[in-house]
Amino acid sequence: MTDLHEHLTHRIDDMTGDLVSLTQELIRFATINPPGEDYTPCAEYLGNRLKGTGFQINYFRGEGTPGDSDRYPRTNIIARYEGRGPGPTVHFNSHIDVVEVGHGWTFDPFGGEVKDGKVFGRGACDMKGGLAASVIAVEAYIAANPEFPGAIEISGTVDEETGGYGGVAYLAEKGLFSKPRVDHVIIPEPLNKDRICLGHRGVWWAEIETRGRQAHGSMPFLGDCAIRHMGAVLSAFENQLYPLLASKRTEMPVVPEGAKQSTMNINAIHGGNEEKHTGFPSANVPESCRMVIDRRYLLEEDLATVKHEVTSILDGLKENRRDFDYAIRDLWDVVPTMTERDAPVVKAVAAAIEEVLCKQPDYVISPGTYDQKHIARIGHLHDCIAYGPGILDLAHRSDEYVIIDDMVESAKVMAFATHQLLTGA
Question: What is the pLDDT of residues 83-96, one digit of tens each?
Fold first, then answer.
């Protein structure tokens, strides 16, 4: 271990209490998305913290993006610390939004309670613990090596849980995740402290609508039930599409094991009377039924084929089922992403994991997307990975937590990797 690494190790160990307190304070901002609660105060808290370390602070509102309003502004923060000379920029990007609380908690979801070496709360794992670890890592590094070249950035961005369009996508469109401003990006998502996440599977969301004809519910033979038509779609998916998806396998190191095949989730079905009232529904044959599908696909597949597998089934029903008619609408799509193992950021984090944890890292692919998609697609920056201290399986669950020792070790990994990326040493 070099003298600098030894200095960083001791400094980060001494900052453990600060790391825990910072994680607790971030959890106590109930940044629930949707609708986007408390984004601004959370961003400002982070900004004030980093300003005290000497970072230059800029706030960016994702105006015009989905969900943005005066009540729920999409407030992002980018903090930048300039080194003492020219060099690359290392950027740590974390999202500050969290999903809804849900049921089954035995801890206050926004209390940040510490017990048994863990910090509990919504977002502790996904990903405020990772954000806190990155802050401690860079603060320790700046204190230990103030003469470093280049620059370090930390961002707190919004809306990752709903696609990232008011956060990283918005910022990437402004050139804030592209060269020459940024060279290397580490996203502290909860993929476990000994894993390097190289990317993610592809995704295609679409809405399928089956159409019918309204009539009185006592005389359904005079109408045409759109929900029954949707039932035929579901049956065809079960008999034709799902067996096909189960046969597709990838060479990508996707975790968990079940995600190494193609998958599709039925996200929602809506049909018949609207449910915006508490009264008794009217007796109608439904003229429309809508289904949202969430298709996750592999590097070995292409989007056109993925879409054709669905539309060919729908076209077959239109040809063979009486009065069947449908419409399909794309909601969003993302191509699969996988950073090469010999990329600088991968090699730097791998070397740091070996030194801190005394083991070779595992290289994985996330089953779902995260903000790397926007950095690659919009920013055209491919030296980007996810690495963070949280346990992936705890994300979005009740009694979510992050292990304190994992945050400490991850902060050391981030600090060591930062030094290598900035100096090559």
Answer: 999 999 999 999 99
